[in-house]
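Course assignment 3, question 2. Fill in each field.
Student: A.L.
Task: Predict the tertiary structure for the chain below.
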Amino acid sequence: MKLELKRKEFLKSWQTAERFAGTKSANEAAQGIYIKASEDGLVTLKATDLKTSVKLKAEGVNILEPGEAVIPVLIFGSMLKKAEEDELLIDITTERGFMKSGKNKTKFAVIPPDRFPAISESPDGEEVCAVQGGILAKLILEGNSAASLPMDYPKYLGTCLLRTDGNSLKIVSTDGKRLSLSQCFCDTVKAEKDLILPALAMKELGKNLSAYQDKNIRISANEYMAWFSADDIEFS
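Answer field:
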């Protein structure tokens, strides 16, 4: 795989992905970000800590040779941030990669892509509703605010409830002493659901929605997973 990167543009996509990577996981592949450059010109990034995940389209990339790899988050992220040139060349083989920045060439290890944990995607779930990103971010900020962070025992104190009921979408949380609830009118409800979701993951989702204020976020779910999807990104 060989890629030309516009550093500043690509770094924004990379930093979104790295927030969801399992940097403290015992799974080596989960400590990296999966990158795939397809022959159709699409570059996809995936990251997971085995509980929460993100899949997004990478910006600022020109594909010279398609391919796929898992790149260590901390090492490569540091290289991206420290690079002085805005035009970078990335050349990745089976076992190692090279970053060329001006006259500098840096080597880094890579992980085989088949070791990366499988990430379920939204077609695996039932469509629940759709809501504008700015509204969902407000619901998360208000409705998730009473959750116990970090998660305490019992575990539900570190979660929030997302409920679709009739024409409304609600998010509610409690730490056992206080309770917060935020709701909005939602005329796109296709299934009435009660979803118990990790409060920390929802907080991170709310932060990332700042770039999707005016876009519809599609919510879908099954018994084990919930997905929040826009055109070029999917959180789960």
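Instructor remarks: Helices lie at 7-18, 73-82, 133-143, 199-208. The chain has a mean pLDDT of 90.
Grade: pending
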